[in-house]
Amino acid sequence: MIQLIGLIAISWLLLKFFAKENLSVLGLMPxxxxxxxxxxxxxxxxxxxxxxxxxxxxxxxxxxxxxELLTFENFLIEIWYQIRxxxxxxxxxxxxxxxILIKKIGTQKGIIISSIFFAILHWLNxxxxxxxIQMIIVFAFTFSMGLLLAYSYSKTYSLLIPFAIxxxxxxxxxxxxxxxxxxxxxxxxxxxxxxxxxxxLAFFTMILFPKIAVILFNYLIVKKYPKVExxxxxxxx
Length: 237
Fold this sequence. Notes:
The chain is mostly helical. It has helices at about 1-20, 30-60, 70-95, 95-105, 105-125, 130-155, 160-175, 200-225; strands at about 65, 185-190.
């Protein structure tokens, strides 16, 4: 909580001194329209994130069971952790930084710079620095996702919109369906999956379909949001 308060305070200072604005430009105030789009985008992201594991179940015969470690207390702790982590990244990579970039150098350049920063941050968070292949793979997806998230903020001037997309994906990938049989998760691997041989088509479908679909479908949804101009940013539309 202290970390988030600190980031919000820094955001306020950056906006005040570099853009002569206040925190209202972050669009954190819930409105009917924002809540509706938040729910739709969150569900869309969570669904396509889940397809990652559904495809693994189908192609590689992975089996999942509810974790024996799951408790209501752990559930609340992990949900808060995911919310805090995603909100932190949104405040750092979008938020005041993206608003200032848009105002100073334009929307397109601001979106690209913000997305590059988002991708580089994930190099460090995922511990792939120095592994060229992994760096390329991580950059390709996180840069593409960064473009979507930055675009969604520039279209709506509300961090709640990219936050919904980001949270739906992360919550499913990092908590509901884990990549290992250990840890504090809702589902865990029932056993080590059997060794199976799959086609290249099946492999790339399993790996790429969820990532492409979550970006494409969320982009189409965000396009439906009426464009909020800079002159309207304080109207909480």
